[in-house]
Design brief:
By secondary structure, the chain is an alpha/beta fold. The chain has two domains: 49 residues, Helicase, Ruva Protein, domain 3 (Orthogonal Bundle), CATH 1.10.8.420; 141 residues, Dna Topoisomerase Vi A Subunit, Chain: A, domain 2 (3-Layer(aba) Sandwich), CATH 3.40.1360. It has eight helices and seven strands; from the N terminus they run αααββαβαβαβαβαβ. Helix 5 packs across helix 8. The relative contact order is 0.11. Bound molecules: zinc ion. The site of zinc ion has 8 residues, from helix 4.
Length: 198
């Protein structure tokens, strides 16, 4: 007999839909919510809605911000290098390490035919436009070392044919791609300093 009320089941369903949360964890979280004060739950729900309402991609680099331009774009408008990452959270380890003083660009993914992600789903044309318009001198690819990252780099290379910009990528051998946001400072410093030309 299923003893869980429908509203509780619905809540478990919401938690299960989050990345990295299995059904067991989702159930534990949902039951935990039921032990909270109503005011705490209200604040939680409000923060969810607020984040979705207020946070949007920066029009210049596509990282998440709640201002007209993100802090990096605001403070480094004349940067001559762009570090290309897959998703907004990948910028965090760079800024935490403090080694990089250039600008960023969030591609929004990597080309992955199996997941139905083609070049048209990424901000590739916008990136090429920025490189040309801002006379960018170095393009640092921090997309990881997966086959998908490689084909994305190749596509970008084709789109940049004839454009004079130095292309580098982070040193290999560090956890990359989806794990980039969790890279510690020392690893990031090493990967950045050991970056190689493409
Ligand atoms: Zn920005």
């Amino acid at each position: 007999m299923n003893i869980e009320p429908q509203s509780l089941e619905a809540l478990i369903g919401e938690f299960s839909s989050l990345p990295g949360i299995g059904h067991k964890t989702a159930r534990r979280l949902a039951y935990h919510v039921l032990t909270k004060k109503r005011s705490d739950v209200e604040r939680f729900a409000e923060n969810l809605v607020n984040a979705v309402d207020r946070v949007h991609p920066c029009p210049r680099c596509y990282c998440f911000t709640d201002e007209d331009l993100c802090p990096v774009c605001k403070s480094r408008p004349d940067a001559k290098s762009i570090c290309v990452v897959e998703k907004s959270s990948d910028i965090v380890p760079f800024e935490r390490s403090g080694i990089y003083k250039g600008s960023y660009f969030v591609l929004g993914g990597v080309i992955s035919p199996l997941d139905g992600i083609g070049p048209e789903h990424l901000h590739l044309p916008e990136l090429v436009k920025r490189i040309k318009e801002e006379s960018i001198e170095e393009l640092i690819l921090a997309l990881g070392s997966s086959p998908e990252a490689d084909s994305t780099a190749l596509m970008l290379d084709r789109m940049l044919a004839g454009v004079n910009v130095k292309r580098t990528r982070l040193a290999r051998g560090i956890p990359m791609g989806s794990d980039l946001e969790f890279v510690d400072e020392v690893t990031m410093l090493r990967a950045f300093e050991g970056r190689v030309c493409l």
